[in-house]
């Protein structure tokens, strides 16, 4: 399993359905994208994930900080 | 009638046939968001939606589109569902002037029946979370009231803020938070971070409908949302102390989350389909660590769908945006007649005003941009005469088409502040702002040929009554 959004291979399980084996919620350890395994392929499969929402490590590194962390005043 | 919690309001919507209970099994995605999206497209009197049979869940109860029509907004204010938009805004103003109404501290809030703390905290075990739009980075809390206090004045009730901010669920006890720099929680967080501290927060989910309205109302920094809620409800807002943080939270909430915004931490968040009808880009934003969950038995999870307007959020914050802008302007300029700031939370505002002298209207327009809300919104302000109803868009179009000479009626203010979510801003958070002065010039401004307006005939009002009466009788 890889992240549909950033193709990272470190994916963990956030939640399992209260009804056994109905679905799981997975999370990417890098971009924090979360998805339920029963969602449409456009949200769960790297192959079908829309180009305009894909992310790279460079995108994550260049993401602006909002709001900026202010200097400490002691 | 004041509703003390979401449940009693849903019952009231039910009595007014403004609640649709979907009992057939639906998938969490894409059904829940698609249904709420569809409700927005049905028309201005769409019902709220309630789901209790969602695949994979055993006890999930989900309410959507609760404020998502003018009928529901009217019922939230205790008005007849057919009350016109203009009358709802007028009544909102009348009640605003009754504020402040002190809240009522009430014992034994129903959310104390169940508590989870420490390592047992698991948001997914309590909340039936689901995705809204395809490009969203995950599951979001988008209709909660977030409570925080000013770290420099922790005992000041007025500076306690109750606001709605988007929060991405990033883990069992972890949320991303978007504090727009113009909003009060960003001030609280900046002060905490300057002191090297975390910022305690309480997050109230599933609230009475007026709490949700005031949480989206741009009040002044020292104005209390609970005191305004009392005025809008016509009865004191019931509140209680959250057990971990001591913050004041609604007595009737379905779920209370408590924890801290981790000071000086930023982490990737988003994107998220926003009220601008566009996705916000991914940014590194603050993180909330949830340390305690309190909740009712079988809590109802409330969320709203948002996207290309109009969606539920536009009904929810429409009047709540018009009224503070109008009241803040009229405090200095009593000539202001009305403000329609219902478009994209007031990124565009239409203001009607009488004029003291030439150039006055555009001065009022400039002032709108420096109100607390205007600092982040009011990118385009259309000024119209006092006899033009800013809620009557054909009248506004008439004013634009006849009163405007682009040679001097467009006032462009370069590089002004705007919320970063404005997709037109460049860089994000900076934009030119525009006043379109569609008022009739008055001396010493003598431009144009406006000396002979065509007005309704003096006898017209009598004929309106006569024709209306004939129509009511069914005369042919």
TrEMBL record, chain A:
| Database matches in Pfam families | EcdD_BsdD_detox
Source domain of life is Bacteria
Q: Where is this region: Disordered?
A: 46-74
InterPro entries to which the protein is assigned, alphabetical: VdcD-like
The biased composition feature labelled Basic and acidic residues covers 46-64
The name under which this protein is listed is Phenolic acid decarboxylase subunit D
Which source organism? Actinoallomurus iriomotensis
Could you read off the lineage of the organism from its UniProt record?
A: Bacteria, Bacillati, Actinomycetota, Actinomycetes, Streptosporangiales
TrEMBL record, chain B:
InterPro entries noted in UniProt: PAD_UbiD-like (IPR053417), UbiD (IPR002830), UbiD-like_C (IPR049381), UbiD-like_N (IPR049383), UbiD_Rift_dom (IPR048304)
- The UniProt record lists the 3-octaprenyl-4-hydroxybenzoate carboxy-lyase-like N-terminal domain at 10-90
One cellular component term (GO) for this entry is: cytosol
Which GO molecular function terms does the record list?
Answer: 4-hydroxy-3-polyprenylbenzoate decarboxylase activity
Q: Which Pfam families match?
A: UbiD, UbiD_C, UbiD_N
Where in this chain does the record put each 3-octaprenyl-4-hydroxybenzoate carboxy-lyase-like C-terminal domain?
315-438
Which SUPFAM superfamilies does the UniProt entry name for this protein? FMN-binding split barrel, UbiD C-terminal domain-like
Entry's Gene Ontology BP terms? ubiquinone biosynthetic process
Domain (3-octaprenyl-4-hydroxybenzoate carboxy-lyase-like Rift-related) spans: 107-309
Source domain of life is Bacteria
State the family it belongs to: Belongs to the UbiD family.
PANTHER family reported in the protein's UniProt record: 3-OCTAPRENYL-4-HYDROXYBENZOATE CARBOXY-LYASE-RELATED, FERULIC ACID DECARBOXYLASE 1
Protein name stated in the entry: Phenolic acid decarboxylase
Q: Which organism is it from?
A: Actinoallomurus iriomotensis
